[in-house]
Amino acid sequence: MFIEPHIKKGWIEVICGSMFSGKTEELIRRLRRAKFANQSILIFKPAIDTRYDKTNIVSHDATSIPSIPIQHSSQILENAIGKDVVGIDEAQFFDDQLPEVCQQLALNGCRVIVAGLDMDFQGKPFGGIPHLLAVAEYITKLHAICMKCGHLATHSFRKTTNQAKIALGEKEIYEARCRVCYTEGIEEQNAEVIPLKASSVTAIK
Ligand code: ZN
After folding, report:
1. Ligand 1 centre from 112 Cα, in Å?
2. Domain presence at residue 2
3. 0.70 surpassed by pTM
């Protein structure tokens, strides 16, 4: 009888979506299941994200799981080789080496689960997530509920006119919105900004 040699094969899963779509909850759910099966797991998050807790991944419903805050994605490789499952939260904030790091882990037999925002507040692809979506075996796009109209939301609308790419915050700064309500919000913000500029020019004259 031929028995295939047991070769441990890894893969990449991406959980993406807007803010308030439950990405971290889904990541935690998958990691918990692996832990119940006595698989070795390790979780990383960018050191930049300290909204709730320095060492725990904490989702909006306060379900938490211990994680390692790191500065650079290369630190994931140093720590995670040999683990069964590696979770990476808020992946959009990592450097551009992250996709390569994930591929290396998968080649080494790790199941890699990456969660992150697919679009920034301007509706543009965010960090390494588009690359990861291209190379992942499995993709889950989660939706929030539009806080304006109640339809499915895909966009993270920033309620302030702060233009920095990264502005950490929650409900006080962001709203999940559908495509239409997001676009309307941007148009309203632009309409508010233009008269301000016009009046400041007049004042200088
Ligand atoms: Zn809407």
Report:
1. 33
2. no
3. yes
